[in-house]
Amino acid sequence: MKSKYVLSVEQMEHLQELGLDTSDGSMCWCYALSYKNAKWELEIYEDVIDQKRDSSFWETLPTYTLQDILDKLPPVIKKYYWLAIRVSAHKGMWYVEYNGRGCTLSYFYSENLIDAAYEMLCWCIENGYIKTNQL
């Protein structure tokens, strides 16, 4: 299976819909508005800012790496649920979960660690564990 390094355009748009300020992404999707057959291209966000891409020619969307997501996830929820990441050798799945006191508060799994972490990020936002710009 091919590795996935960043969240997709659709995943980033969903995070924005949830009210998360995504301007702190390490990478950036860029789309050339003037090209008929243009596709989203991945760039390092600082390079895009440094080049001052003209918004009349480019649509840009910051995107998250796995490290960006992990930096956003709270290490502890409710004082006794700790963030944990594990891999199941049996099915080759990655698990991102909050465990504590012999029980699990929440968990998500996927063949790609970044997708499991993304699902946990969405869950944390939806449950108020990560502040957003929505009331």
Keywords:
135 residues, alpha+beta, three-stranded antiparallel beta sheet
Question: Can you describe this structure?
Answer:
This protein has helices spanning 9-17, 45-50, 66-72, 113-126, and strands spanning 27-32, 41-44, 58-63, 76-77, 81-88, 93-100, 103-110. The strands form two sheets. A four-stranded antiparallel beta sheet has the order 4-5-6-7. The protein has a three-stranded antiparallel beta sheet with strand order 2-1-3. The radius of gyration is 17 Å and the shape is elongated. A hairpin with a 3-residue loop joins strand 4 (76-77) and strand 5. The chain has 135 residues and is an alpha+beta fold. It starts with 8 loop residues before the first helix and ends in a 9-residue tail after the last helix. The mean pLDDT is 88. The protein has four helices and seven strands, in the order H-E-E-H-E-H-E-E-E-E-H. It folds into two domains: 9-65, no CATH class; 67-126.
How are the SSEs ordered, and which strands pair?
Layout: H1 9-17, E1 27-32, E2 41-44, H2 45-50, E3 58-63, H3 66-72, E4 76-77, E5 81-88, E6 93-100, E7 103-110, H4 113-126
Antiparallel strand pairs: 1-2, 1-3, 4-5, 5-6, 6-7
Helix pairs in contact: 3-4
Briefly say what this structure is.
By secondary structure, the protein is of the alpha+beta class. The chain is built from 4 helices and 7 strands.
